[in-house]
Amino acid sequence: MADLAALEALFSQVLADLGFREWAYQVIRAEALPDEKPVILTTFSDAWRDHYIDSGYHLIDPVILKGPEQLLPFTWSGMSFGIEPTQEQKSFFAEAEAFGLGEGLGIPVHGVHGSLAMVSMVAEEETRRLTSMLRCHGEEVHLISLIFHNLARELMSLGRSGRGPISLSARERECLLWLAKGKTRWEISMILCISEETVKFHLKNIRAKFGAFSRHEIIVQAVRLGLISP
């Protein structure tokens, strides 16, 4: 696989062929700090992704908190995990539904070297039909998600070490362009109409992908790779 963008495109196509319209992939790190932003690859809207991150929903999302403990794929509506949702979680569910993410599948991924991730996917189907899709394609999406996880993990590692191609999301590219123009995180947030915390999240992802620590190093790497013009 050439790069992360190509892998994401292929993953999207394979899932679309099975009837799933959107997906999200989130790395699970047991040692993550409470204020650490999650690593998320997704085709969900930028508006929902940014809202999810800004609101810290990865800290209360039951799919993320309890999903990795499961061995098999599950429907969101069918998950209980033996817990009663908190009021905060109920509000989260309502907001997700307002964004068109009221029902979907959770795919727990247990990868190589003990790595963990959760893949979520949604389809234009009612709950009963989605349950049927899970019965028919559960093993397939589980295996496909595991393959995606292991390849994505390898490609992200290559990007961080500088040994392979680096893929930036549209939002990361926007943040990078304004960073190169000398804008602060706050100024970038005002220009893009997103929170400063979200800008911080995207710049952290860029820094990790480039293996860079300073603004200067990020810009030099971006110019060298042809992502921005000098």
TrEMBL record:
Keyword Transmembrane: no
InterPro entries in alphabetical order: Sig_transdc_resp-reg_C-effctor (IPR016032), TF_LuxR_autoind-bd_dom (IPR005143), TF_LuxR_autoind-bd_dom_sf (IPR036693), Tscrpt_reg_LuxR_C (IPR000792), WH-like_DNA-bd_sf (IPR036388)
SUPFAM superfamilies: C-terminal effector domain of the bipartite response regulators, Pheromone-binding domain of LuxR-like quorum-sensing transcription factors
Domain HTH luxR-type: 161-226
GO molecular function: DNA binding
Entry keyword set: DNA-binding, Transcription, Transcription regulation
Gene3D superfamilies: Transcription factor LuxR-like, autoinducer-binding domain (3.30.450.80), Winged helix-like DNA-binding domain superfamily/Winged helix DNA-binding domain (1.10.10.10)
GO biological process, one term: regulation of DNA-templated transcription
PROSITE patterns: HTH_LUXR_2
PANTHER family membership: DNA-BINDING TRANSCRIPTIONAL ACTIVATOR DEVR_DOSR
Protein name: HTH luxR-type domain-containing protein
Organism: Pannonibacter phragmitetus
